[in-house]
Each structure stands twice: as structure tokens, then as C-alpha cells.
Amino acid sequence: METKEIGGKTEHYAPDFHYTYMKTIKTISVVLFFFSFLSWSEAQGSVSAEVLSKIGFDYSAVYSNGLANSQVSFDYEFCIPKDDAKAAEVKAIEPDVTMPRLAKGRVGCSENEQLCIVSTHGPKWKDRLYALASLPYVKRIVQTDYE
User: I want to staple 144 with a disulfide (CB 3.0 to 4.6 A). Which of 37, 75, 83, 100 is the partner?
Assistant: First the structure.
């Protein structure tokens, strides 16, 4: 029982169950949001500075769905050694990678390297970008400019 003073009188009443329930739900939601944000922040912080330094374009304006301004995706490119095992490793991370045979790309692949082109479009694109940049044989990732 709770007490409430109305017009100079003290009245006893039972608190509204719905109000108490909703207040509890809101509190739990805020706590869950806080811990979700905290774990996201820690995950973002777990990418090393060395990995981030390989990414040579500004991807901060790209949303989680891979689109900037809710309508445009970006392509980015990098070189890997011409090796079937390394190509398979890249395809395991990014199944939609394009590997044109003779192109050197803006990144300037050598004769012993294979150009790889990937789009930001799709869920978890940033996780895949970080995974690709983490590969020891990927030296630099740049935005693709189709000219």
C-alpha cells in the first residue's frame, strides 16, 4: 500500500500494476541498450590501428546496410598474391568478391598479384572489410573509382 495526499487528506491506495510494469520494462530496456552499446563499442575498439591504417578511404558515412545516403553503395579494391589458397580465403570472407584477371585497378596490382573488388552493400559489410584488412597479405584497400 502507498499513501498519497490529496486536498489535505491522506489516502491509502494500491499502486497501478500497469504503471509499475511499464516502468520496470523501460528500466530493463535502458539497461539492455547500455550493455549492447558497450559491447558494440568494445568490438569497434578491438580492430587494431595497423588494420585500420590499411583502409585508405572514408567509410564513416556508410550505414550498417552498406549504403551511404540510404541509396548508394561503394566498391573498394585491394591486391592479393596470385595464389588459389589466398583467393579461397578471400572468397570465404567475401563470397561476392570480383577478381578480374588482367586488371591492375586503382590500387595498382603487380603481375604477381590479383585485383579484388568488393562492394559495401549488404549486412555486416564493415566486419568483412575489417576481416579482409586483417589478412597479412592485404597491404592497402582503396575505394574503386570507375572511370
Answer: 75
* Residue from 71, 84, 83 nearest 121 by CA: 71
What percent of the chain lies above the pLDDT cut of 90? 48
The CATH topology of domain 49-143 is Alpha-Beta Plaits (3.30.70)
pLDDT band at 109 (very low <50, low <70, confident <90, very high): very high
Residue 118 near residue 32, CB atoms below 8 Å: no
Percentage helix, strand, coil, to 5, in the chain?
35, 20, 40
Place of cell 499513501: 3
- In the chain, what's the furthest Cα-to-Cα distance? 91
Q: How far is residue 128's CA from residue 32's CA, in Å, rounded to a whole number? A: 26
Question: What burial class does residue 79 get, using C-beta atoms within 10 Å of its C-beta: 0-12 exposed, 13-18 middle, 19+ buried?
Answer: buried
